[in-house]
């Protein structure tokens, strides 16, 4: 007998845990929007000065800013382990497929640009959008 177990599991979990929309509602009500939390995020992750145009653009999440700034959260290697897929948050500007960007490493400084290199943006995805 090959039955689809999903409807049964859904019924059991709904009776045991209740309606799952409460979790989604809690996230929507209590987790601040990216615009509202940008100042905190930028203040805790960005090491440069915030008293210039770039700093103000990141705090305001200005999508029309001339430069794009992406905070990389995770790097996922491709199947051949030749390149990476980057999971990150766009702090300001707009990112396009085919755009040339400069990737800054962890040890990058304005005085020593050795830890940076140009790269081309491949495909773009929106992860778990609702």
Name some characteristics of this structure.
alpha+beta; Transl_B-barrel_sf; DNA-binding protein; 130 residues; extended; U5 snRNA binding; GTPase activity; Elongation Factor Tu (Ef-tu), domain 3; single chain
List the helices and strands and how they pair.
Elements: H1 6-17, H2 21-30, H3 34-45, H4 53-60, E1 69-77, E2 84-92, E3 100-104, E4 116-120
Antiparallel strand pairs: 1-2, 3-4
Helix pairs in contact: 3-4
Short characterization:
The chain is an alpha+beta fold and 130 residues long.
How would you sum up this structure, described in words?
InterPro entries: Transl_B-barrel_sf. This is DNA-binding protein. One of its GO terms (cellular component) is cytosol. It is a single chain. With 130 residues, the protein is of the alpha+beta class. The chain has one domain (7-120): Elongation Factor Tu (Ef-tu), domain 3, CATH 2.40.30.10. It contains four helices and four strands; from the N terminus they run H-H-H-H-E-E-E-E. Strands 1-2 form a two-stranded antiparallel sheet. It starts with 5 loop residues before the first helix and ends in a 10-residue tail after the last strand.
